Amino acid sequence: MAPMIYGGGAEESLLPRRRRPSLAGAVFNVATSIIGAGIMSIPATLKVLGVIPAFVMIVLIGIVVEISVEFMLRFTYSGDARTYAGLMRESFGRWGAVAVQICVMITNLGCLIMYLIIIGDVLSGTGEDHLGVLQEWFGVHWWNIRAVALLFIVVFVMLPLLLYRRVESLWLSSAVSVALAVVFVGICSGMAIAALIQGQTQTPRLLPDLNGGLSFFNLFTAIPVIVTAFTFHFNVHAIGVELGKASDMMSAVRIALILCAAIYFAIGIFGYLLFGEATMDDILVNFDQSSSGSSLTSLLNDIVRLSYALHLMLVFPLLNFSLRTNIDEFLFSKRPHLAVDNKRFLILTLALLALAYILAIAIPSIWYLFQFMGSTSAVCLAFIFPGAVALRDIHGISSGRDKIIASIMISLAVITSCIAISTNIYNMVV
Q1: Where is each Amino acid transporter transmembrane domain found (predicted)?
Q2: How far, in Å, CA of 360 to CA of 312, rounded?
Q3: Residue 277 contacts by C-beta under 8 Å, 6 or more apart in sequence?
Q4: Which carries the bigger pLDDT value, residue 42 or residue 398?
């Protein structure tokens, strides 16, 4: 049996004894891994796809994600690997592991940078026309500009959470994060219902508005957004190995997927009802009273924006956990377990946090990068790699049905991603 990279096994005895991971804690950690910045783009996907196709896509992608995770866990517990990279190494050798590690690095680092950018937008705004919450409350000062406000959050909020050695230790912050997402959805639904009663909402389109060939291909650009919103495969082993049983992990995954699908569709339909065709790619911009001309109260605007910013602060440690572990496994595969090497753990943690902070200050927006991640690294982690493992079937445990599903999963992922990438490139240059 290979060493347990994420806890358990021989290294477990070297760590301080903690409470046994629970199913509820796993559900919160999975749900927090799923719900990130993607929730803000779900209303825009309803605007592009229409309500019915968007609902169908959310359900279908959720089902396919559940199947892909089942593939991962089944092959993990049939072999010696206890990490995603180790799983791919067993099936495809060193280059399989490297492919996973690179995709995790691209996806997670990109998301962490974007989280900091959005938190900076909420607290310090994007300019004179878009003031942040701190600037609206206290005026513009040196201590609430983006660089200083983010530095405070990074040092006093995120760093303490990043110093935990086990992902299970984050269960409470994950529970609070999920609660904040529910609060966000609750406020949006309340405002949408109030606007509906007052006759201030627009009738949402049930089907897409196709105005030519390009509009049809634009539909494919919305699919990677949903794929990215459901991608949490980089944390499957981190959470599952600590939980112990594959059956328990699958139960946690199914519960979390149902919860997140409900949250996604709720924020999608209520956000679309509130803002109609004016719904932005990032719905948070619609809650900026100075830019949207909304009649919403300042209090509700601030609660919506701050609840989302706090949610991202608590999601940040979970994505950083898998990013840190993959980079360590990539660079120091023959060194002792990261959690018991204090010097290496601290250096890697501080280096990644500093890199994300510097890039978040230097890059004003990475929405195009986020779209491309959904079409490339995220779709590889969510569908292509798990499907490839099932097709490779080194343990002889894939049924004929499994291989058919895996083939369809990979084919649809590749076709959809190619169309989405091509359409995005066309829209950028034309």
Answers
A1: 24-426
A2: 14
A3: 47, 202
A4: 398
